[in-house]
């Protein structure tokens, strides 16, 4: 199985024009606690960037800055095609081509798997419209469910699915949008290792062939090494490693998971 | 730290919390006793004649007299229609207001608070008083009943609806925002489907309540079955009154049964 044909080639600009994203001197504070401190890094199109780090390091927050769910306290997000993202309009332009796979799946339990995947097309249907989902959305959602192997259970309620199956529905929802920026927050955490590896390879192929900017938060370092082109490591809200996967050696790994010295300066 | 030392670290706060809890309990108990006393419920002499009187009333009410049943169909339908239309009107007005009152539906906090104030003001007037107002405004019959129940239900359902909306998981709504959906889109595609069982629950509960309320509204001139019951009592036709009450009981039990069935379908799989 492969997910490649989920993304219609025709709708895609050449890889060079796909939005590569960068963040500059990003700070996020919540309730007096710093979550991200002076984070600057970039995310290339057609490549896989994996964000690693101990729990509480700010990985999820970084991902949620990239999809606009978290507003940074200071610092900027840049998209190549859009420039610095300020204001609702530029964020809307980025979000229109963004899909996120959430750690807690973010599915609606009492709706069917199919209805949940269809929510990827919420913008193509007016909220007050009584018309059904448009044909193209129904087709894309069905195809995405087939790709994650759940087409035969499309009309079952999500609450009857296992954790791993829900994760696959979440992945199907994200992929059905044919995103140019795909963010995954621990997208394989509830999957068996072989399936995690296979879906990971599929996402990787998708990124490389279609020029998708793929950013994954992963806690399994082995999987991160296997999938990543580049590793960005966070510890206590700070970038402690940022480089090609080949340079992420055991020493670097050890440093990432060492408790940071307290009372460091910065935002 | 030894066990005793660890406990000592907590002991002060533990005692403070314990005292606070006991004080609250004592205060609540005192308030309840005072309320009973003020209402005369602790005055034993008031109960002396109660039981014989009730027994007498019960004796005069049997057997129920169904002889005028042919004339009850119309008022019964009026009451049913008043309850259904009043509930529908209330729900229709309550849902948009609830979407403005819920903290998680995107409206600013000042608007949340303003709408909550309006909802609470509307429901603080009982349905009966709205009934009196609307009888004066549009005349006798079921219509003032529909309007009275509609307005009062807007206040009540608005509160139940916005609480139902606030109970949903934030994840699906965030997922929609992350892909650029509008506030209305998040409400329609994430909040509403999640809240639907609770919304339906509130609606069914309100329908049951409104059918009873539609009966009492008959007393202030809003027609229906209540007027029949009150008239029977006024004419000392206790046997007919008991028959009417049995019919009303049957109606409400039927509606409750349908409500329970609907609720079961809505919550299927939970």
Automatic annotation (TrEMBL), chain B:
The keyword NADP belongs to this UniProt entry's keyword annotation: no
Major subcellular location class: membrane
Transmembrane regions: 23-41, 128-151, 213-236, 242-262
Any one GO CC term of the record: plasma membrane
GO molecular function: ABC-type phosphonate transporter activity
This protein's UniProt keywords: Cell membrane, Membrane, Transmembrane, Transmembrane helix, Transport
Domain of life: Bacteria
Pfam families: BPD_transp_1 (PF00528)
Family named by the database record: Belongs to the binding-protein-dependent transport system permease family.
Name of this protein: Phosphonate ABC transporter, permease protein PhnE
Naturally occurring in which organism (per UniProt): Rhodoblastus acidophilus
Lineage: Bacteria, Pseudomonadati, Pseudomonadota, Alphaproteobacteria, Hyphomicrobiales
């Amino acid at each position: 199985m492969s997910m490649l044909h989920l993304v219609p080639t025709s709708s895609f600009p050449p890889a060079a024009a796909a939005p590569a994203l960068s963040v500059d001197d990003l700070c996020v504070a919540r309730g007096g606690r710093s979550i991200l401190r002076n984070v600057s890094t970039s995310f290339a199109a057609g490549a896989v960037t994996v964000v690693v780090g101990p729990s509480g390091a700010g990985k999820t927050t970084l991902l949620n800055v990239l999809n606009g769910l978290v507003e940074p306290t200071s610092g900027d997000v840049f998209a190549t095609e859009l420039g610095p993202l300020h204001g609702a309009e530029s964020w809307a332009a980025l979000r229109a081509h963004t899909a996120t796979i959430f750690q807690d799946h973010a599915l609606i339990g009492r709706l069917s798997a199919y209805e949940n995947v269809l929510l990827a097309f919420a913008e193509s249907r007016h909220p007050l419209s009584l018309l059904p989902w448009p044909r193209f959305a129904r087709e894309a959602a069905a195809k995405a469910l087939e790709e994650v192997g759940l087409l035969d259970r499309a009309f079952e309620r999500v609450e009857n699915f296992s954790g791993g199956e829900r994760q696959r529905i979440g992945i199907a929802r994200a992929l059905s949008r044919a995103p140019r920026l795909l963010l995954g927050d621990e997208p394989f955490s509830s999957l068996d290792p072989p399936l995690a590896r296979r879906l990971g390879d599929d996402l990787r192929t998708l990124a490389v062939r279609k020029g998708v900017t793929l950013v994954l938060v992963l806690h399994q370092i082995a999987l991160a090494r296997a999938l990543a082109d580049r590793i960005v490591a966070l510890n206590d809200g700070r970038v402690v490693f940022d480089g090609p996967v080949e340079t992420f050696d055991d020493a670097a790994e050890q440093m990432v998971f060492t408790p940071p010295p307290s009372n460091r300066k910065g935002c | 730290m030894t066990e005793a030392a660890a406990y000592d670290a907590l002991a002060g706060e533990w005692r403070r919390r314990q005292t606070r809890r006991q004080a609250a309990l004592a205060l609540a108990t005192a308030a309840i006793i005072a309320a009973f006393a003020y209402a005369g419920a602790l005055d034993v002499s008031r109960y002396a004649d109660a039981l014989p009187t009730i027994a007498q009333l019960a004796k005069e009410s049997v057997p129920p007299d169904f002889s005028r049943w042919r004339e009850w169909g119309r008022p019964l339908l009026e009451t049913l229609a008043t309850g259904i239309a009043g509930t529908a009107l209330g729900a229709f007005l309550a849902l948009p207001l609830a979407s403005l009152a819920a903290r998680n539906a995107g409206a600013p906090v000042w608007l949340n608070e303003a709408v909550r104030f309006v909802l609470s003001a509307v429901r603080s007037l009982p349905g009966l008083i709205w009934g009196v107002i609307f009888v004066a405004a549009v005349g006798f019959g079921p219509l003032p009943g529909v309007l009275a129940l509609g307005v009062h239900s807007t206040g009540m359902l608005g509160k139940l609806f916005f609480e139902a909306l606030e109970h949903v998981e934030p994840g699906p709504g965030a997922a929609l925002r992350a892909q650029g959906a509008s506030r209305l889109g998040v409400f329609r595609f994430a909040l509403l489907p999640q809240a639907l069982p609770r919304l339906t629950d509130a609606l069914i509960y309100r329908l049951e309540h409104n059918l009873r309320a539609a009966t009492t509204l008959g007393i202030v001139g809003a027609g229906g079955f209540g007027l029949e019951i009150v008239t029977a009592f006024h004419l000392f036709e206790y046997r007919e009154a008991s028959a009417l009450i049995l019919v009303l009981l049957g109606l409400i039990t039927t509606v409750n049964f349908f409500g329970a069935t609907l609720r079961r379908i809505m919550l299927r799989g939970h």
